[in-house]
Each structure stands twice: as C-alpha cells, then as structure tokens.
Amino acid sequence: MSDTSISSEEEPFVDSGSEYVPSNPDIPGPSRIRKRLFPAKTQNRRNTAANEQGIAQENTAANEQSIAQDNVLKFKKGKKRVKNPSFWKRNNIKRKKAKREEYINWAKQKVPKKTTGPNCNCKMKCFTKISDPKKQSILKQFYDIGDKNRQDTYLGGLITVLGVQRKRPTTGEGKEKTVFYQYKKCDHLTNIIAAENDAERKVILEGDKRLHIQKAEVFYKKLKEATELAKGGGVDVLCFDYQQNLPLPHIPSGDVFYKRQLWEYNFCIHSSITKLATFYMYDEMTAKKGCNEVVSFLHHYITNYVSEDVTTLYLFSNNCFAQNKNHTLIQYLHTFMNISGSRIRQIIHQFPEPGHSFLPFDRCFGLIEKEKRKKEIVYLAYDWINLVKKT
User: Which stretches of sequence are listed as region Disordered (predicted)?
Assistant: First the structure.
C-alpha cells in the first residue's frame, strides 16, 4: 500500500471532505459511526449538560428564595402593630349578634343564636295577627342588614312619637322642692347655723341670714315700685339676661350631646310698659356672650323700642360681671345719657341679692324650655327661632 492508504488506515475517521454517504438508511453514516464508536464521550456531554442545567435551576431557586427572604424582611412586623378592628373580639361578638349567629361571649361561653319567644300578653295581640312564615321573613330581612348601626337607623325610621294619652292634672302649688342643683346662700347659712355649737357665733350667723333675706326683699320691693311707677308714664323698666345655651343639633342621644360643635345664644329684654319680651338670637360663630354684645343689644333696643316720652330708665339684671356688672356697660350708659339729643335723663341700674334673682324674663325662658321638651329633634338655628316665636 501507498503512504496515503496507510495514513488513511491509521486515521480512518479524519474528514477528507470526500466521504461517501450512502443513500441506504441501513448503512450507518459518519455521525452514526461516531456515536457507536464513542458512546462514553457522548454520555459525558449529556452529563455535563444535565449538571449545568441542574446548577442553573439551583441558582434560580436560590435567587427566588433570597428574594422571598428579602420580602419577608422588608415587610416584617414591627413593634407597633397596625390595628384591625374587624378582628377585635368585641367587634366579632357585635357582628355575630347583628347577624343572628351563635357566638362565644367574654366568659368563653357559647351563646346560641336568637329565636322567637312565647307570645306576649299585650292587648294588641301582635303575635296572633302575624303568621309564623311572616315573622321569619321579617326577622330574616332585619338580620340580613348585618350591621348594628344600620339596624338602629332602620328601627328609628319606623318609630312614631305619640303624645301622652292620659296624664294626671296637677292643681295648686304642689310639693315644695327639697333638692336643688345649684348653690344657695340661704341653704348654706342654714346648714352652718345648724352645725354651729358656739352660741355667739350662732347669733352672728343668724343675723347674716336675716340680712341676706332682707336685701332680697328690698330688691324685689324696688322692682315692684319701679313697675308701678312706669304705669304713670315717663318711666320704663327693662330686665335683661341670657337664656341657657341652646344646642345645635338637639338630638336625644348621649353621643351627639358630647360631640356637638355649635351653640345658639338667646338674649332677652323684657319691658314693663309693653309687657313684651324681645329676643336677640345668634350662634357662637357670629359673636360671643360678653359685655360688648350686651351693650349692642341694649343700644338697639333703647333707640328703637323705648317710647319717646320716657325720661327715666330702670335696668334690672343679675350680678354676672362678664356681661352686666362691669365698666363697659356703665360707661356706655353714662355716654348714652350725656350725648346731645338724648331724651333719657336718668338711668338706674340695680342688681339683686345672689340666689334671689328671679326676674320677669325668667318666665319667658320657662315657656321656651317647656316647648323645648316637646321638640325632640332640632337641626337648624331657624328651628329654634320658630320655637321662640311660638312662645
């Protein structure tokens, strides 16, 4: 053989570029020969590819686990937990009661769901008028609401307020009160005198009580004399004070009482000549309840409602220093009386003895309070104004 043939025999698998590729599929080609002659090498390649794929999967899983751990660390629960009222025990109990479901109470006792009880003995005979299927339908419709506040609102819309059908008429003065909600100087002196053991000290206290009562009697005597004097002409008697604040809104609910934000003020001036009371009503957003407001109302009333033939003016009010008993009011009265063209030549302002300050405008306030008790709900200031007009 030639060198070429020997080389070809020594290296039978070297590609010469001119190999014969048979068309018969039963005769193996070069690629099939390689696979048959080198099975271990092919298997190593497969193992290498599998190892690389396994390593890639492990790396991917490790990366995903690392990201998950980072997310856990990122959203880790802090020291101050976020409140979730829907998981509170009392809210769960409240919600299950509203849905007519059984629940576990605070004593860890199982409470069964609500069921209809025996028939009532009232004269309306409601249980006999409504059939059992209708009862269950009404209960299902009500408990399907599922919220206590919405259920209360639903029941409130079905309630109708009726007047008193029967009441006991009261005649005469009735029983005298023995309990009061305000401090009374007379009661204070009476209690001190009863507890005092020293005879001399007791005599002094009894004298103070008599003097206190005499001062109160003198004040009412002056009020009566001024009223009689006004009947002759040229004199007018004005009594003025603020009423107790009127709430907005006025709703029969304890929660609303402590959450209200607005008060309505009512200032009254009563004249002994006309026997009429004039009211000045405004809310706390408009003005306050100080001496400036009192001066403004008095000036408006005197210049517009006091008769032109009045030359002497008597004023009666309580001892509230922030409203009535202060320099601002005294200076206004002095200035008004001395300005040119003023027809009023004399103004007398008198104050009652503390604890004995019942004046004519208090009767007007009493009538307003009586009508106020009949008015269950008031939303707007205009409603209070209409109520005062009706009285």
Answer: 1-33
